Amino acid sequence: MNDYRYVGKNILRADGPDKVRGRYGYLADEPLYGALCGAVLFSSRANALVKSLKMEKALELPGVQILTFHDAPASRYNSGEWFPGQNDHPDETVLTGHVRHIGDRIALVLAEDRPTALAARALIEVEYEDLPPVVNIDTAEEMAARLHEDGHSAFPGRLEYGEVDAAFAKAALIAEDTITTPKIHHAAMEPHAVLAVPRPEEVLEIHSPCQIMFGVQHAIAEVLPLPLSKIRVIKVRMGGTFGGKQEVVFEPLCAWAAWKLGRPVSIDTTREETMVATRTRAATIGKVQTALDGEGRILARRFDITADAGAYLSGTKKVMMAMGKKASRLYRLPAMRYEGRALRTSTTPAGACRGYGSPQIHAITEIHTDLMCTRHNIDPVEFRRLNLVEPFDKDPAGAADLGNARVRDCLELGLAAFEWERRKSPSAEGRFRRGAGFACCTHGNGYYKTIYHDVAGMSMRLMEDGSAVLRAGVHELGNAAVPVLAQIAAEVTFIEPGRITVMEGDTLFNNYDIGCQASRGIFVMGECARLCAEKAIEMLLSEAGKIWEGPVRFINGVLHTGSEIISLGEAVRQIEMKRSQAVEVHIQHRPEFNPACYGVHFVDLTVDTLTGLVRIEKYLAVHDVGQAINPSFVKGQIYGGVQMGLGMALTEELAFDDSGRPSARNFDKYHLINAPDMPEVDIILVEKGEEGGPFGAKSIGEVATVPVAPAVVNAVNRALGSEMTVLPLTPARIVAHMAG
Amino acid sequence: MEPMIPATLAELAEMIKTAEKFRLLAGGTDYMVAHGRTAPDRPVIDLSGIAELHGITFSENEIVIGAMETMSALSAHAGLRPKAACLCEAASRVGSWQIRNRATVGGNMANASPAADTPAALAALDAKARLVSSRGARMAAAGDIPIGPNRAAIEPDEIIVSFHLPIKPGRISAFGKIGSRTQVSIARLNLAVSAVLEGGRVIEARVFMGTLGAAALHCPEAEKVLVEKGLEAEEQFGGALAHAAAEAIPGRSTLAYKQSGARALAEDVLTGLRAEAMKGRL
Fold first, then answer.
1. Where are the domains of chain A?
2. Is B220 in the same domain as B235?
C-alpha cells in the first residue's frame, strides 16, 4: 500500500514494558522528600454556608497546619479557561466558605505524612448552614441565585445559518425527540494528584499530570501574583485522563499553598474524591427537530440543548457550544438553529471529557434519526445515503472545510462487513430479544478556523551518535502521543524510533503549544514533528554541503557526497567540529486545515427483558483515519473508546438524590463495562489520506467513543420496538419500560 | 500494630478473652475495603493460621466445610459439586478471581452483607453452622444467621468453625444471580434452591433469596409451588418469589426491578435444576 519504513507499522511503545510490570511510577508513587502532604477537606453538603470550623483537635496532631477558605485568595477563576482573555466566566476559588456540591473544597490540611494529614482532617468539625440544593436541571435557572451570587442564571449560546423557519414551514415531515445523556466519571486509572515546589528566585514549580501545561500556568497566574515566567509547569507521567485532567482542579490550590508556606506541597486523592470532587462529562438534555422534504432530504435542524455544568461553570459552556459546531459536519444541513445553555447545579462540576460534546450531540441526533426513520418508515441506511456529507464539502456554519470526509466509505464498508441486511430485523419474541443498530459521527482535528488559535512549536537536535531529541510540548495521556511523534520523526530522519527521545511538556524548556486537547495530537502536533524533522534534515544537508564537495544527498538515512557515504552521526560531528554549529532546529506549525474525521459503529445485541441486562453479540467499528501511523495504537484507542461508549449507553451515570448526594462514590455502585463483558470489537480502518496531516493521518482518540452509545441505544430500541431516550439504558430502565 | 495469629482454636479463645475489643480477619476482602487505608483501630486477630478452620471432608451423612475455605476452593472442588451444586455455583460467582482466592465462606456469612452469595446457598442446602466460644459450641441453621444488613446472629466472642451440610439422596440444587455485570459484580438479587426428588417428583424444596434486606430470605410459598407443581412451574414459582420480594421490601424503589429479576431467576434456576435432575436421572 505504501513504502513507508515506520509509518503504518505496529512499533512497540517504549513505555509499554514498564507499564505492564507496574514499574512506571506516577506522581503519588514517587513522593518528594520533604513535601507536605495535603488532604483536602471536602464538603459533605450540596449547598451550604460554612458557619464554623472546629480545628483544635486536628491542630494538636504533630506538624499539622490547616489552610482554610478564610486564608485563601478571593480571586475567582474558571478551570476550563486555558488562555488569558478567553473570558470564561470565573466563579471558582481555590477554597470556599459557600460549598456548592458534595466534594467542594473547604480547607487544606497539611502534615509531614499522609496518615497524619488524613487523621487531622477527620478530626475537623464543620458546622454548616444548609441552603436548598439545586439538583433538578428544570429548576436550576430559577434557583441560580441560591447557588451563586454573581447574578448569572444561565450561560446561553446560539448558532444559526440558513432560512430555518422557512425550511420548517415547507417541510413534508417534521420529527422531534428529546434525548437525555448522563453525567459520567472519566475513570482514569490514576486518581488526581499534584505537587507544587517553591524554587529559588521565586520560581514555583508545578508537577501535574495535565493536558494543557500552559493552561495550568495561566490558571495559577489567576490566583497568585506571579508572572507566567515564574510559574514552571512540568507535565508528569500520567495514568489516564480522558479529559478529566484537562481542566485545573487541585493545581491552583496546591500552588497557592506551596507559595504561601514556602514548602513543597503535594495533594493526592482517592477514587472517591476524584469521583465526587473533580470533573465529569456534562449531562445534557437535547431537543432536536428535523425538517425533511418529500424525498427524505434534510431541509433544516433545530436544537434546544441544556448542559448541566455542575457547581461551577468550568468548561461546560465551551462543551455546549462545541456540540453545536459538530452538528453541521455529519449531514448536509442547509439550515440550522442551535440554541443552548449551560446551567449550574449543586453537583460535581462538568468539563472536558473524551469527545468534548461530540458523544452528547451525536447521541442526540443519531438516536433521534433512527426513531424518526422507524416512526415514518424510512430506511435508516437510505436516509444516511441521502443526507451524509460528501468528501471536500464545506461546513455551512462557516468552520473549516470537511476535507477528505470518508463517512460514506465507513458506512458502506461497515454495512457489508457487518451483514446489516441479514441482521437488521429484530427477533421480537420471548424473554431474550435481539436487535441491531448503527450510528454515524464526526469529530475535529484541532482549532484551526475556530475562535481559538492553534499553534504547535517543537525543536529537534540531531545528536553526535546519530540519535535525536525532539523537544515537543506534548502531553502523553496514555494514548501513545509520545511514541507516535517518534515514529513520525523516524520516518523523516530514518533514525529508529527507539533512538529518538521525545521530551514531554515543561513550560520552561518547551516551545509554546496549546496542549493536548481538541483531537489535535496527530493532525497538528504530528505534522509539526514531521516538519521539524524535515527542517533538521534540511539543515544537516545544507551544513554538510559547506563541508563536503558537490551535492550532498540524503538516501536511506545516510549522506551521499560525490565521493563518499557518511553516516548521520558522523555528519553531525563534523558539522559541530568544523562549523561550530549544532544541527538543531525550531519550528512553529500553524495548521491551515481542520478536517473532520468520521466513524460508523454497528452493534448486534440481545436484551434480557426480565433482568434488563444487555449482551453485545457483535461489534464493528469503522473509522476514517486518513492514515494510521501505528495501527495497533489506533485500534487501542478504538477498543477503549468502545468500552467508554458502552458505559455511556448502558451503565455509567452519576446520579444525585434530592439532597444532592451522589448515588455512586466508588466503583461498587458506579459500573464500568469490565473485561468479561467487553465484546470482541472488529475494526475496519479507512485510510484515504488527509491533506495537512502527517503522512495523511488524522485523529482517532476522541471520535472512537462518539458513535458507541447511539449505536447501542438504536439496537436496543430496535430489539424492543421501544423509543427509550434517557441514557444510560440501565437494567432498571429497561425493565421499567417492559412493565409499560 | 501487628495482627495476632493464633495457631489453634484454644489460642484464639485466649486472645479473645484478653482483648477487650478486636476484629477478626478471615479472607480480608471486606475488612481491607473498610479499614485497609488506615492503621487498625482495634487489635486484629488473623484466623488464617488455625488448622481446625480448614478442610472439606465427607462422611456418610454430611459434608463439613471449614469456615476458612475460600470461594475458589469451593468453586473448584470436584467432590462438592455433585452434592452441593448451588454452593459451588454461588462461590464461583463471588467477585473476581482475586477476591475468590481470598474470600472465605465463613467470612461471607459472618459479614452478613445482604448481597452475599453463599449464605442463601448454604441455607438452601439446610446447612448448620458450628459456632464456638469460650462458653462452648453450638449449632445454628445457616438460614438463621443473617438477620439484617451486615447483622449476623453471632455473639461477639463467637466464631464460625465450620458448616455441616446433610447429605440427602435425591437432592439437587441450583443458584442464580443478577448483578450489574456478568462477572465482578455485587448481587442485585440471588436465589438458591434445593429440591429432593423421588420418582421424578419434588418431595421437599428449600428456597432462599438474597439481597432483600438480609442475605438469605426464606421463601416457603415458593417452596410450596415446587412441591405441588414441580420444576416446570416457572410462572408460578416466579410469582411466588416476586410476592416474597414485595413482602420483604414493601415500597422500596428497587422493588419493581427485583420482582422482574425474581421471575428471571425463577426461569434460570429451574432450568438449572432440571439439568441437574437429568444428570442425576432422578
1. 31-131+192-268, 280-445+593-739, 449-589
2. yes
Please give the Cα distance from A651 to B185 (Å, whole number): 13
Work out the average pLDDT over B221-237. Answer: 98
Q: Which residues form the domain of B93?
A: 52-166
Task: Tell me the nearest-neighbour CA distance from A673 into chain B, angstroms.
Answer: 8
Q: Which residue of A has its CA nearest to B190?
A: A611
Please compute the mean of the pLDDT values over residues A113-123 and round it to a whole number.
96
A739 CB neighbours in chain B (<8 A) are 256, 260
Asked whether residue B10 falls in the same domain as residue B108, the answer is: no
- Looking up cell 437535547 gives A286
Q: How far is A268 from chain B, CA to nearest CA, in Å?
A: 14
Average predicted confidence (pLDDT) for chain B = 95
Q: What is the DSSP letter of A523?
A: I
B22 is written with which cell numbers?
Answer: 478486636
Residue B148: give its domain's CATH number. Answer: 3.30.465.10
3-state secondary structure of A79: coil
B126 and B25 within one domain: no
Residue B41 has a pLDDT of 85
Nearest Cβ partner for B264 among A119, A610, A671: A610
Contact state of A610 with B260 under an 8 Å Cβ cutoff: yes
How much is the pLDDT for A1? 52
Shared domain check, B77 and B58 = yes
pLDDT tens digits, A211-228:
999 999 999 999 999 999
User: Given CB atoms, is A20 within the 8 Å cutoff of chain B?
Assistant: no
Confidence of residue A75 (pLDDT cuts 50, 70, 90): very high
Transcribe A248-263 into DSSP letters.
Answer: -SSHHHHHHHHHHHTS
pLDDT digits (tens, 9 = 90+) for A296-338: 999 999 999 999 999 999 999 999 999 999 999 999 999 999 9
pLDDT tens by residue, B30-85: 999 888 877 888 999 999 999 999 999 999 999 999 999 999 999 999 999 999 99
* Contacts made by residues A120-124, CB under 8 angstroms, sequence distance 24+: A120/A39, A120/A58, A120/A59, A120/A61, A120/A64, A120/A66, A121/A39, A121/A41, A121/A58, A123/A55, A123/A57, A123/A58, A123/A61, A124/A41, A124/A53, A124/A54, A124/A55, A124/A57, A124/A58, A124/A66
Which chain A positions have a beta carbon within 8 Å of B267's beta carbon? 431, 610
> Does A671 contact B180 at a Cβ distance shorter than 8 Å?
yes
User: Do B154 and B255 fall within a single domain?
Assistant: no
Q: What percent of chain B has pLDDT over 70?
A: 99
Residues of A in contact with B29 (CB under 8 A): none
Q: Which of residues 445-464 of A touch B (CB under 8 A)?
A: none
Q: A280-445+593-739 is classed in which CATH architecture? A: 2-Layer Sandwich (3.30)
ipTM value, please give it.
Answer: 0.95
The second-level CATH assignment, the architecture, of A449-589 is 2-Layer Sandwich (3.30)
At the fourth CATH level, which superfamily is domain A31-131+192-268? Aldehyde oxidase/xanthine dehydrogenase, a/b hammerhead (3.90.1170.50)
